[in-house]
Design brief:
The protein has 16 helices and 13 strands. With about 400 residues, the chain is α+β, with helices and mostly antiparallel strands. A hairpin with a 3-residue loop joins strand 9 (about 225-230) and strand 10.
């Protein structure tokens, strides 16, 4: 029987719930909005399967020969709709062209972030774009297994911990399973997202129904300074990382799951076939690919992935990069986020304060914040934001 004595030892992947032969495990939300397994001891037969599939308990790293790339999707519409360079879409299309199914994170009708599957290429767009919230997986792992046993191709995309949870649950490799993990900074609380969503809808969108959410909207100021954008029929809210309270919570590491502060999956050699993430320094690898419209980095981790990439490579403008160069100084790959001193108070207050009072307390839109925003936008419009940021980073390193 799996026992969660320390919340930092559970990534919430649902492998234990899906594997239980007696349905004795449910995922239950705690006061921070994260899901943890709860065991019905009367149903439990103590078979040990839940412990055997736990990716945190069984975390490992196996060195392998990888390939590294930076790339941009040649389809400008797909690239514009994607957070970075549109790396995921051709992989998904490869599977759907073979009558397979594709799993990924998307929004439900209430903008809750969930995992679901599609079987049609016209639906791929629902998976594009970042969702800085831990997704609700439900019984996705069991669904993946069912499709694989029907001899169908399956693409599953998610965070590294979700991929490893799925792999442990399946217990064996399937030739027709293709996995894609998105490099993860950390996973924020669905409760914080819910509170923020309601706050913005009420205070900035005149209580209108939200029609679209973009966590990384690059249409306004480009890829290197993307904004959080929420749109209703008649109103729009858009703010950058220094102003928007949700982004400030995320990049300040206040809203993250406890396991993210001691992440078992911070490593170079992932178990997925593909690892994809942002490339904000494309000019350091290939200046031709740097147009501030979004560029992706990609690690191909398996022979299966390498064979697939050969078939989809023509969909990209791509440059191969030595792996050691591609992953150099990529902190989110190797290091967990640091636990802030205010985190305990942050989650205590979110349960007792109303949304406006809460976000104004922790993320006041004061003069300092406003000046930062004005400075960034001024530098962007002057065309010197990238150069200024580079110089600032060099000074900070000294």
């Amino acid at each position: 029987m799996i026992k969660i004595q320390e919340k930092s030892k559970c990534c919430g992947c649902t492998a234990c719930m899906n594997i239980c032969p007696k349905q004795a495990i449910k995922m239950v939300e705690d006061e921070e909005g994260f899901l943890y397994p709860k065991i019905d001891k009367e149903k439990c037969i103590d078979c040990g399967l839940c412990e055997n599939v736990c990716p945190v308990i069984n975390a490992k790293e196996q060195k392998k020969e990888q390939k590294g790339y930076i790339l941009n999707n040649k389809d400008n519409n797909i690239r514009a709709d994607s957070t970075s360079g549109g790396a995921f879409t051709p992989i998904a299309e490869y599977v759907l062209d073979r009558k397979g199914v594709v799993f990924g994170a998307t929004f439900d009708k209430d903008f809750k972030v969930i995992h679901r599957y599609i079987e049609n290429k016209t639906e791929i767009g629902i998976f594009r774009g970042s969702k800085y919230v831990q997704s609700y997986l439900g019984n996705c792992f069991a669904q993946v297994e069912r499709f694989l046993k029907l001899d169908r191709y399956v693409c599953f995309s998610g965070t590294p911990c979700q991929i490893e949870g799925l792999k442990r649950y399946l217990k064996k490799d399937y030739e027709k399973l293709i996995t894609v993990d998105v490099m993860c900074h950390a996973v924020p609380s669905p409760l914080v997202w819910k509170k923020y969503f309601n706050y913005i809808r009420k205070s900035k969108l005149n209580k209108e129904k939200v029609e679209k959410v973009l966590f990384r909207d690059k249409s306004k100021y480009g890829f290197k300074y993307s904004t959080m954008t929420l749109k209703s029929k008649n109103n729009e809210y858009s703010r950058g990382v220094e102003t928007d309270p949700y982004l400030r919570a995320f990049f300040g590491d206040l809203s993250d799951r406890p396991s993210c502060y001691d992440c078992a999956f911070k490593k170079q050699y992932h178990e997925s076939d593909f690892t994809i993430w942002d490339c904000f320094i494309a000019e350091e690898f290939d200046k031709k690919l740097d147009d501030d419209k979004g560029t992706s980095r990609m690690l191909v981790n398996t022979e299966k992935g390498k064979n697939i990439f050969k078939e989809i490579e023509n969909k990209f403008d791509v440059t191969e990069i030595k792996v050691e160069k591609l992953v150099e100084n990529v902190k989110e790959m190797l290091y967990s986020v640091k636990l802030p001193e205010k985190r305990k108070d942050f989650f205590y207050d979110i349960n007792i304060l109303d949304e406006e009072e809460f976000f104004n307390k922790y993320f006041p839109n004061n003069l300092k914040v406003k000046l930062k925003r004005i400075a960034r936008i001024t530098l962007i419009k002057a065309g010197i934001y990238k150069q200024t940021k580079k110089v600032a980073k060099k000074i900070l390193r000294k």
